[in-house]
Structure formats: C-alpha cells, structure tokens
Amino acid sequence: MTPAPTALPHRDPGLPDEERLDALLGLLTTEEKIGLLHQHQAPVERLGLAPFRTGTEALHGLAWLGPATVFPQAVGLAAAWDPDLLRRVGGATADEVLAARDRGAGRNVWAPVANPLRDPRWGRNEEGYSEDPWLTGLLAAAYARGLAGDGQRLRTAPTLKHFLGYNNETDRCTTSSDLPPRVLREYELPAYLPALREGSAVAVMPSYNLVNGRPAHLSPLLGDVLREEAPDELLVVSDAFAPGNLHGLQGFHPDAPTAYAAAIRAGLDSFTQDDDRPEETLGHIREALKRGLLTEDDIDRAARRALSVRLRLGEFDPGPADEGAADTPAFRALAREAAARSIVLLRNEGGVLPLRDVRRVAVVGQLGDTVLEDWYSGTLPYAVTARAGLAERVETVFCEGADRVRLFTFGAGVVAEPGEGEPLRLESVGREAAPVLPPGSGFALLDWGGGAFALRSEQTGKYLDEGPDGVLACTAPGPGTWEVRQTFRLEEVIAGHLYTLVQIHTGRHVCVGSDGATLELSEDGARALPVWIRGLGSGAEEAARVAATADVAVVVAGDHPMVNGRETEDRTDLALPAAQERVLRAVRAANPATVLVLSSGYPFAVTWADEHVPAVLWSAHGGQEYGRALADVLFGDTEPSGRLPQTWYRSADDLPDLLDYDIISSGGTYLYFDGEPLYPFGHGLGYTRVEYLDPEVAVDGDRVSVRVRVANTGTRPAEEVVQVYTRQLTSRVRVPLRALRGFARVRVEPGESAVAEVSFDTARLALWDTTRDRFTVEQAPREVLVGRSAADIRSVLPLDVPGEVIPPRDAARAWAADGYDEARGTVLCPAAPDRGDAVRSRHPGSWLLMRGVDFGEGVSSCRVRAGSERPAEVRLVLDDPHAGPTLAALKVAPGGPYDFAEVAAPVVGAQGVRDLYVVLDTPGTAVAEIAFDR
C-alpha cells in the first residue's frame, strides 16, 4: 500500500535534511530520478512531488512575467558601492517572485551575474557589477543573500551566472576564453566564491563559451573548485539550449547521449534544453545510461542536488507558503533610493550643479522623455522620465533632438505618411513639390550608435518594423524582443544625401515591392531603393533653439538596451552615437549652462564632453523612479554618492582584443591598465569639498586595518566613499598596479569630520604561485593607497606584512605547461576530453616562459609531454627565445588532438638558475608537461 504523502519521511521536519534526502532518493525509481534532470522537473504524485521549474529571471527585479518593480540595472546598483542596498533590493525581488507564483514564477532564480566586467564592450555589460573581482563577489553575495533570505529555509534559490570566462557575445558559443592559472585564481574565481562560501547562492550556471578549449558545461572546475567551496549540495543548471551545443555548434562530442553523459559526469545536474519539452533530453540520458556512459550513481548525484534545493526551499515542509508582496509603497521608495544612489557625478565645473534659482529647464535628448526596459527587466508598472521628474519641480521645455526626416526616391516619389499599421507606400509628387515637414509628419530618425538607426512615425508614434512577407509598416512600440528587427543601417550612396536602408538583423535592403508602391525587404541588393533623406541635422538645430530659451539645458543621452550592445551583440567602440553627439555640441553652443546626463549600461568615451560640458553625470538605466531620482540629485536633495564600478576609457584603442581574457599579459582593467583613463575606477564626485587627514595603517596578526579622518570643508553634507588599495612594489611576476582591498562609506556634516576604517586579511595580498600551485603572500615591499578613486589617491603609506620568497622553479619536479609566467602566440587547449590543460602554438616561433628555473649542478635529460597533428619540434631555450642557447630539441610525432606522448632528449649545459623558454616552431604543437632528470 502506497503511504500517504504527508507520512513520508522526506516530509518529516523533525528529521535532519540529509536523512530526508536519503529517504526520498531511496523511494524514487531510476526513471523518476531522470525526470528531475531537466529544467521542467516531472511530478511524482505518489510521493507528493509537484512539478518544479528552474529559472526565473531576477537580475534587477522580477523579469518576463508582467508588471514588477524595476530597479536600476545591475551595473547601476553596483555603482552605489553598498552591499546593504543590494541585499534590500534582492529581498524585494524575492518578495515579488513569491507573489508571482500564480503567473509562473519559479523559486529557483537565475541571478546574480558574477562575471567580472573585464571589457566594457561586452554586450551584457549592464548585467554585471564591476571589473574588480572582489567588489563583484561582495555585491553578488549581497544580492544573493537578499534573494535567499536570512531564515532557516530559502525564500528563493539564487543561481550565479555565468561560470566562467564569459565577456563576449561575438561567436559566444564557439570562442574559447584562455584562463591561465593566475588569471583563473586571482581574477575569475574570486567573483564567484564569496556567495558560494557563505551559502547565499545555491546554484551555478555554466556559460556558453569554451574555457581553455573545453566547453564550460564540461569544465572540471564545476566539481574540482565550486563544489568544494559550497557548504551544501550545489545545483548546476545549464544555460538555455547550451547542452545541444556540446554535440552541435561546439562539436565536442559525436552525439547527444555522449555529450549529455559527459556533462553529468562533469557536474551538470539540470538541462535547460528545448524549453518545456523535456522528453528528447531525458531520452538522451536514458540512452547514455543504457550504453554504460553513465551509472546509477551519476544519476543519483544529480537528482539529489536537484532535490536538495527544493528541500531547502521548504517545499516538503508543512505549513503555509510565503506569499510575498508586489509593487508596495516600500518597493517604490526603494526603487527611487536605488536609482538616486546609483547616479555618478563625473564632472562638475563652474557651479552648475546642484541646480539653484532655476525657473526653466530644457530637457533634450533621445532619452529625455522615456524610460527603457532591457531584456532582463520586468514590465514597468509606471515610468517617471527625466522630463517628468524635473517637471514636478520646475517649468520644463522638451526637445527629443532626433532628426525629423522624410524619405524620397528617384522618380518614384516620397514615402507616404503611414496610418496605424498600414504598410509603407510611395506616393507620386510633382517636380515642384517641396520637402516640407509639417508638425507631426515624417519620421524621427533615432541614432543608437554603431550604425544602428530606428525610424518612428511622427504621425502614429510607432516604429518601422518588418511585417508578414517582409512588408514594412510602422507597427512596433520600439526596438525589442529577442530578434531585433526594428533597426536599420544607412548605406551611403551620395555623401550626406542619398542612402539605401538595410535591416540590420537580416542584412536585407529596403526596396519597392512588385506592386511598384509598397516598401518591403529584399535579399536582392540590386533592387535596393536609393532614398533621399531630407532633414539630417534638423534635430541638433531644433535642440539648440529650445536650449537657448532655458536657464539650464539637461541633455539626456545614452544607449538603447535592446540595440548595439545587448545579449548576442557586443559593441565595437565606445563612442557616443554620432547624432546624439551633434545634439550635445549644438546645445552646449546655445546654452553654456549645459548638463550631460548619460543613461547607459556601459561606459562611453565622452572626451569632448569632458572638456567642454560643465557637468556630466552617468547612471545605468534607472527603472521606474529614474526621473525623480535624477531630479533629487540635480537639485541637491540627494548628494551624488555613486562611484564607477569600472574604468571609463578614452577610446576603444586603449582596450585589449575583446577575446583576450589574460588581463595580466594584456594590461586589462584598472588592475593592469597603465594608461590615462577618461574616468578611473572608483571615480565619483560630490557637491562639497573633503580632505583626508591623519591616515594610519596597523597590522595585527593576519589583519590589516587602515584608518583615515575625513573632514568636510564645504557647506553641504558629504557622502564619501573612502577607498583603500594596495600595491606590491617588486615581484618575480607582473602584479597589479593597484588593487582594491576595501572601502567605507561615511557621512560628514559641513565643518565636521569622521573616521573611516577599512580592514582586510593579509591573505588578500596573495598571488597564485605557479611554481608550487598555491596562493602565496610574496615577501616584498608594499604600500597602502587611500583615496577617492583608483587614480585620486590622497595618502600613501608603507605596508609591512610577513611574506615568503618564492623559490626558483625546481627542475627536479614536473610542471604543467599552463603554469607559465609569460607566453606569446599561444592558446590553452584540452590535454584530454575530461580534464587537463595544455598550451598550443598558433604560429611559428610561439613560446612560453618559465622564469627562474633552478637546474642546480645540472640535469641529464628532459621529458616533454606533447602532441601535434603533424610532425613537429619542441625546443627548450635558455634566456632568450630567439638568441639563447638551445638545451634540447625534441621531435613530436603526429597524432590526434588528445594524443599526447612523452618525448625525451639529453640536456647539456643547464646549470644554476636560468629562464627557460619552450619554443614551438610548428603551429598546432601542444605541450602539457615539462620535466627534467638529474
């Protein structure tokens, strides 16, 4: 007789969780366990298990399920530099997730994003927190704690995204991120580990890309590192449709059963594949089990992790469920607070801000009277735009500043004004017809940068979109959806006048249909419709006219979160969209009291504005209360207290290649960038003046404490973020130019002072020692830097902490080749399908350097584990890869990609401590391990 579900042991809260899990797992059949390994977990009614789904998006509020409180984007929340704020926003989001269960919200939430923001061109820059891994880890853990709650049971089950080495959308499923051991241990992993160690995140999602040539979904790091750090059973869920890539786009395995078995063995527990249709995925797992690629123990481990999260959510406990809450007055107030505190004052010259004695403000710009949703936001319950927020306080006049254009063709006529939902058509015009643009006619041409434009009907307010059969009509509310079809590129035919229009999504040209009148898309470029565009530049002229009528002009510029920088699309530059730049310059010429407000999910290289515009502010897209929050800061009701969570560069030329993940070698992020940024990491101004006085550093055992007195010498309260960095002055390897160790927020009234204290463990000073594969605090002189940003340092103090001398690399032990100190012309690759990395040459003369090898009195021979798909040679060279003496040349026989074999050769002339270069003259040659014999 089947026991009643309420009498089953897994429903007994008096038993320890481990016993409840053991009992439940023992009651399940193999088929029922397999049914738990998909995003949509099958119910088991006989045991009282309801259906369960992983994956509710909750990046900065509940997403995809209708109206919900929309907080600032994640990078904006990070700009507040306040873990408590992130925790409170996470808690409000958890409330709204729970309140939306009747709309399909599941309690496994896919947030936060813990990818450090290595490159600001990443299309998903808006989703992360910071380029600093420690700050990212701190804020991710805080947001996850808010989502999870502080009770014995989880309110929601947070999932860290996306593990790991993921900062490019370009070919994201087929590109590989090279993470040498130091980059992995010092930069990537520290962003993920805090939330796992404290248990605020209970799941991890691998990324789409490959890492060191192996799909992230098959990475041994899932088991070797993450599960060791998580205090409880860690659930690993795949990204959407990523499992299919393992045997599809990535071609890493020959078929789905082999690929899915390898993923489960690597640590994947839940397959997000084929949406709510799990049967095909489960069939592949059954087939893998049948072939012997999986064991019952493999299935048990994955099923147990899936059930562990549900147990910790309290699903099997008696009592009423937490109902949550939605769109409360408290949440609206929190949205306003978060939006205000995320605003960063980048520049403020001439006393323009805060606004005083202002009667009339001109609000100008494409973002001046709109609040935009991004892909991972909820539906705005309401929206307070910049114009609306300022209008609550002062008289405003508005000008969007977009060029208002009409479209003409050779001989065929002008594009007619479309009615609601009507296809675009040509109408004949006489030769004398003038391109007059009456109010409410024509199209607004919106420039979102990167060559992406949107056309909006001035008559209906709808955007040009692709309809059935490629027919064009103004039907869209704006650019959006997963496939953005509402943006076009202008291909110049006659400079400044004649263009063809190309839909960016498909690359198809706008042309005249077979009826001779309707406009549609064609794949035949020869049928492209040359279009005269009348009105280019009109937006800047109108903006200047309006700005001249006001006491202050506020230009609100930036990006559209769905265009030119979003999931699936990286940016190619850092420039402000050209038309928006024209508007800004025209407004500044018309009104010296101009304020530039940037609203974007990433930095811009606004070098002209920094030289010519008195005041510049930035925030991420701020959500429903953006306009009121902006007004709070502009009028000085709220002190600007945000700080930049990433470097703003002067040009994309200052950045390494987008796919170069080795920030140490390439000089990436504020840690290693030695140029002059436009605005440095940590930058942010206030409305008053502060001084840093009496700095002190004390070391007590394993703890460093830094104290400084902050004096407010101005006339307004100060909201100061005191930042503490360290730098190591000597090392055997390249070390950061400065590294953030902590920060403290202090509020100081005018004429008063307050003491800020920051403390950190000396273990934070360690680097990954590749000679011994462990973290080491190196014996070296150090300094503490106290200041307002990574570049605005107010005090420098010596820091004396115990350390050890890293010894030379011992030639008596074998070393992994990927533990090199430097490399040129190489990539990392798998040494075997499941685990182990090697270093592969990309072109002739590639090399890797092992610095300071101790050969002692000499060695007799060397052994190298290497592979190549064609005959090759590996040379070991001392001191200089081009002119140094060759110790040995080892021949490598051709084989498959994983056919690594040990080759040996005698060695003569190696004594003492020398730098060793491993030179790979043949492209495709890979080295996994190097060893010497005495």
UniProtKB/TrEMBL annotation:
InterPro entries: Actin-crosslinking, BXL, CBM6, Cellulose-bd_IV, Fn3-like, Galactose-bd-like_sf, GH, Glyco_hydro_3_C. Residues 808-934 form the Cellulose binding type IV domain. It comes from the Bacteria. Residues 720-790 form the Fibronectin type III-like domain. Keywords: Glycosidase, Hydrolase, Signal. Its EC number is 3.2.1.21. GO terms for biological process: arabinan catabolic process; xylan catabolic process. One of its GO terms (molecular function) is xylan 1,4-beta-xylosidase activity. Coiled coil: none annotated. PANTHER family: BETA-D-XYLOSIDASE 5-RELATED, SUGAR HYDROLASE-RELATED. Belongs to the glycosyl hydrolase 3 family. This is Beta-glucosidase. It comes from Nocardiopsis algeriensis. The lineage of its organism: Bacteria, Bacillati, Actinomycetota, Actinomycetes, Streptosporangiales.
